[in-house]
Design a protein that fits this description.
Elements (H helix, E strand, L loop, with lengths): L20 H13 L8 E3 H8 L3 H13 L3 E3 L4 E4 L4 H22 L5 H18 L4 H20 L4 H10 L1 H7 L7 H20 L3 H27 L15 H6 L1
Antiparallel strand pairs: 1-3, 2-3
Helix pairs in contact: 1-3, 2-3, 4-6, 4-7, 4-10, 5-6, 5-9, 9-10
Length: about 260
């Protein structure tokens, strides 16, 4: 069992926002993916509420929500701990993500409209814009645009159960949990932008086979980067965790 949280690791968003549900949730997500909470660390509701300067209710709601996504797990009647992510976990998650996206293109490419393609291009552009940033908060924001882009892709299948399963995989967040400092943000941006452009070009041309090849390459490369980063981080070779930069307004754009 991990050690109870003592030192502040999340920002006091309760001082600045009237509606706290989403802000508390994203404050905890950001702390998990940036390793301010260590894998296996125990999270005590009262300690988190005190750090966030909110009541226990939004914290409890956020922890319950995080548990459904596999980011934390219950440890008893009142506690949670951060789940421990393994290379095997990532392998299985990315394998299922690939299955979902390939099926969606196979079945639903004919459902792609010009307006939907424009939406996907906008998300890809925002992902690229934020991906080269040195600010870890922008990495998370970029990831959310990437997740939206691929969520639109999965929606092509017009299968709500497939969409629900895909969302519950939460692969993008787990991938970021592995760590990003193994390669530079600029390199990540260059690779991701190139792969997204290849996918969008294939979709734009209605080329099902090429689109599936682009998806396979993109997801496989993302999986390999995540596993390499996780291994590197868990070996204790990572840089010190990023500390909160004192700007709770960053949570605003994450929760929109």
């Amino acid at each position: 069992m991990g050690i109870a949280v003592k030192a502040p690791t999340v920002p006091p968003v309760g001082q600045l926002f009237q509606s706290l549900s989403e802000r508390v949730y994203w404050a905890l997500v950001e702390s998990i993916v940036q390793w301010r909470f260590q894998p296996g660390q125990r999270l005590v509701l009262e300690d988190l509420a005190e750090q966030l300067r909110v009541s226990r209710t939004p914290v409890r709601d956020a922890l319950t929500r995080l548990a459904t996504l596999g980011l934390v797990e219950p440890t008893g009647r009142r506690g949670f701990c951060v789940t421990v992510l393994t290379a095997g976990d990532l392998m299985y998650l990315y394998e299922m993500r690939l299955m979902c996206e390939l099926f969606a293109v196979q079945k639903g490419l004919d459902n792609l409209t010009s307006s939907l393609l424009v939406q996907m291009e906008v998300e890809a552009a925002e992902c690229a814009r934020l991906n080269g940033s040195q600010d870890p908060a922008d990495w998370l924001a970029s990831l959310l645009h990437d997740r939206t882009l691929h969520g639109l892709l999965v929606n092509l299948a017009l299968n709500p159960r497939l969409v629900t399963m895909y969302e519950r995989l939460n692969v993008h967040i787990h991938g970021l949990r592995a760590g990003r400092r193994r390669i530079s943000p600029e390199a990540v941006r260059e690779v991701t932008e190139r792969e997204h452009n290849a996918l969008l070009a294939a979709l734009r041309g209605g080329d099902r086979a090429t689109a599936q090849e682009a998806i396979t390459s993109h997801v496989t490369n993302a999986r390999d980067r995540a596993i390499a980063s996780l291994t590197w981080n868990q070996a204790g070779e990572r840089e010190p965790p990023f500390l909160w930069a004192g700007d709770p307004a960053r949570l605003e754009r994450l929760s929109q």
